[in-house]
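Posted in: Structural Biology > Protein-Ligand Complexes

Title: Requesting predicted complex, zinc ion in pocket

I'd be grateful if someone could produce the 3D structure tokens for the following input. Sequence and ligand are given below.
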Amino acid sequence: MIKYKIHPLADVQTNKIGEGTTIWQFSVVLKQAQIGANCNINALTLIENDVIIGDNVTVKSGVQIWDGLRIENNVFIGPNVTFTNDFTPRSKQRPAEFLKTIIKHQASIGASATIIGGLTIGAYAMIGAGSVVTKDVPNYALVYGNPAKQHGWVCECGTKLNKLTCLSCNKVYTMINNALTEQNRTEQNSRK
Ligand SMILES: [Zn+2]
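-- Reply #1 --
Done. Output follows.
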């Protein structure tokens, strides 16, 4: 029994799709793509072959997910976000291998941002609308602009942190070896 939903106007060639996922009108998904459970793939998206998408991922309309992309659980990809996978594109000239881009879990990418190929976008990172991201983005970083620069940190709930504390949900963060960590998570780790 098929437990995912493909709109009759979509062209979906893979059957590696998790339970509860929906793929909407005029989307094209190639044969080897893997899509996890409970994803929402909005209308007018294109997903190529060498693509792995985790669970609970939202892909808004107008997004092309090219070969080489790895998208972890709970990622949000806004409308018309653009990915690239080749630094020196020429017509009819394919590189030996496409660049690998990793979007870590719970990261969010704002509308119409461009993510250059080969980068890693950190967990819980927030990319502002219209940004052009040319460098790796750390976990929890808030970046925007062209080229995108860091303008602080964001909480797991999405609010910009005030001195490493979230004024919306009261989570507190600490900086360990130049990496931001949520304090409860640190305590859990040290108890192991
Ligand atoms: Zn918060």
